[in-house]
């Protein structure tokens, strides 16, 4: 009887592995899951020197999910309007500071 694992696809992917090789595959998978689920670390907003930040960083400062900011950009109804640079969103740091009340 095959051993049950966290990911149903892991058994399929690891079908050719035996014993310790399968343990290594499971261990690696857990390490990857932990790295992906850990929150991103960004510098304090006061320390940011660039004029704009990426969506994930702006969402971190505003305590929102990145998708929320993308919806704001699409609908153009959020508290901050992004700058579009070659199809990418750039969020002005000055506006983030204004909304959050952070002194420059």
Morphology call:
globular
The total count of helices amounts to 5
Q: Which percent range describes the beta-strand content?
A: 5-15%
Instruction: Compute the CA-based radius of gyration.
Output: 21 Å
Helix content range of the residues, please?
40-55%
Low-confidence stretches: 8-13
What distance separates the N and C termini? 63 Å
- Average pLDDT, rounded to a whole number, is 80
What descriptive keywords fit this protein?
globular, single chain, 104 residues, mainly alpha
Structure at a glance:
The chain is mainly α. The chain has helices at residues 8-13, 20-37, 55-62, 66-75, 93-100; strands at 52-53, 83-85, 88-92.
Notes on the structure:
By secondary structure, this protein is mainly alpha-helical. Helices cover 48% and strands 10% of the residues. It has helices at 8-13, 20-37, 55-62, 66-75, 93-100; strands at residues 52-53, 83-85, 88-92. A three-stranded antiparallel sheet has the order 1-3-2. Helix 3 (55-62) packs across helix 4. The radius of gyration is 21 Å and the shape is globular. Residues 8-13 have low confidence and may be disordered.
Itemize the secondary structure elements and their pairings.
Elements: H1 8-13, H2 20-37, E1 52-53, H3 55-62, H4 66-75, E2 83-85, E3 88-92, H5 93-100
Antiparallel strand pairs: 1-3, 2-3
Helix pairs in contact: 3-4
